């Protein structure tokens, strides 16, 4: 079994939260979901977590602060998104995520490796995949980072898609490719309007 197959097999284990009645169990499930999301995608934001977990902003802030006190995550400021920041795993958080996902993640807790120009794109892909998971339309996924590891860390390979998902109905693996608008491709938006794929 290669790295992507293992990633797809274990991807939804902790991301989908069951409705626990015990507040302690529910809090632990939420923490595990955050660790699993950050383990799979390497970086996330409070808005993505708020959307996926269905919590208020105050509850997400409390969850993030609790995990920060446990030294599982770190928050970095940025002007690249509306949250004005992004979330990364610490070295302790990486170990916890590797234990949860049952695979080596090849992560570093170095924030300088985050390309802020592509942050909106990465968060958009996360929202799309997590929404599919929440609606139970997929049975697993592999992120772009998982695919890059399989290709021996060639993260800038032009053939790399943004993610793979396994359709729940057919069992087929579907590639996800997303384009977000930025200064580079704003001018050719009219060009793409008439094209259908």
Could you explain how this protein is built, in words?
This protein starts with a helix and ends with a helix. The protein has helices at 3-10, 23-41, 46-53, 57-69, 91-101, 119-134, 144-150, 189-193; strands at 73-77, 85-89, 138-143, 163-167, 173-176. With 197 residues, it is an alpha+beta fold. The chain has eight helices and five strands, in the order ααααββααβαββα. It has a three-stranded antiparallel beta sheet with strand order 3-4-5. Strands 1-2 form a two-stranded antiparallel ribbon. It has one domain: Arc Repressor Mutant, subunit A, CATH 1.10.10.10. The chain is globular. α2 (23-41) packs across α5.
Topology of this protein?
Elements lengths: L2 H8 L12 H19 L4 H8 L3 H13 L3 E5 L7 E5 L1 H11 L17 H16 L3 E6 H7 L12 E5 L5 E4 L12 H5 L4
Antiparallel strand pairs: 1-2, 3-4, 4-5
């Amino acid at each position: 079994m290669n790295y992507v197959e293992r990633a797809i097999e274990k991807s939804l284990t902790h991301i989908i939260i069951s409705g626990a009645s015990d507040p302690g169990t529910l809090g632990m499930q939420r923490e595990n979901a955050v660790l699993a999301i950050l383990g799979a995608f390497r970086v996330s934001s409070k808005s993505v977590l708020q959307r996926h977990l269905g919590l208020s902003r105050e509850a997400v802030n409390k969850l993030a602060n609790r995990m920060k006190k446990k030294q599982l995550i770190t928050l970095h400021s940025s002007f690249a998104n509306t949250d004005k920041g992004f979330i990364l795993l610490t070295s302790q958080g990486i170990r916890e995520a590797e234990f949860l996902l049952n695979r080596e993640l090849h992560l570093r807790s170095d924030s300088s490796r985050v390309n802020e120009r592509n942050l909106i794109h990465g968060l958009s892909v996360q929202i799309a995949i997590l929404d599919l998971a929440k609606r139970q339309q997929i049975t697993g996924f592999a992120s772009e980072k998982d695919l890059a590891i399989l290709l021996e860390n060639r993260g800038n390979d032009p053939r790399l898609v943004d993610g793979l998902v396994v359709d729940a109905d057919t069992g087929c693996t579907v590639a996800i490719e997303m384009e977000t608008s930025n200064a580079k491709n704003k001018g050719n938006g009219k060009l793409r309007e008439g094209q259908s794929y």
